[in-house]
């Protein structure tokens, strides 16, 4: 599969939707050992990411210059199948 974005974007493929990684309060994340693998494949796209906290990574907000403003963001992406041709069609 080929994924291209305009502008460039990041992505990951997992066997779970993002909702599976949150606790019931929708704020805290579960540990990876708490996640039960599902049969599907989920593509998660990231246009931008905000870094971890300013002075520590466990509660402080990122410095202002590294924060993403709360606003609507738009991007486009395409997902295309990619086929590899093997010698003798094997």
Automatic annotation (TrEMBL):
Keyword terms: Calcium
Family annotation (InterPro entries): B-gal_small/dom_5, Gal_mutarotase_sf_dom, GH-type_carb-bd
Keyword Calcium: yes
GO CC terms, sorted: beta-galactosidase complex
Listed cofactors: Ca(2+)
GO process annotations (BP): carbohydrate metabolic process
GO MF entries: beta-galactosidase activity; carbohydrate binding
A Pfam family this chain is assigned to: Bgal_small_N
Domain Beta galactosidase small chain/: 14-79
Subunit comment: Monomer.
UniProt name for this protein: Beta galactosidase small chain/ domain-containing protein
